[in-house]
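hey so u asked for the seq, here:
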Amino acid sequence: MPLQASIGKHRYSATQCYNLPQDQLRVANLLDLITPDQGGTDGNLMLSLDKIRWGIVDEKLYQALQRFQQRQFGSSDGHVEPGERTIRKLEDLAFAQNPTKTADPTTNTPDQPDFKLPTPTDMPNPTNPILDWAGKGFGHLKLPGIDDRTDPGVCDC
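ran it, structure tokens below
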């Protein structure tokens, strides 16, 4: 999702930008996806933010943004404008693939459960009476007191 408005401070921290909360969170998230050697925060910024408020940039986000700009461009203006070079560079670095790092397909990550495909012996018994009526609708259920009705005005589902 692109930035809707600028975040940070203009005029060497004299004036706050629009600093919409969702834009501040977007930039903080992008900085967290970037390694420190490229000016990012490597996953340490989002959890350390004090208070995201409309119109006021979080001071830790502002400092992280300045470090990023200094590292990437050799200078810092302290703000991010929609579609301009800082946000483009943040997105490029955050979403870049590392071609030298390849995952081992045989290793499970801690979050990845080991799924096994069902075999015919794992499948339910097809002669099970519950499976016999499943999917046929309620008309095939013989419920005492309900199926004994003879009133034509009652729907016979």
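Confidence is low (pLDDT under 50) at residues 99-103. The longest strand covers residues 7-10.
lmk if thats what u needed
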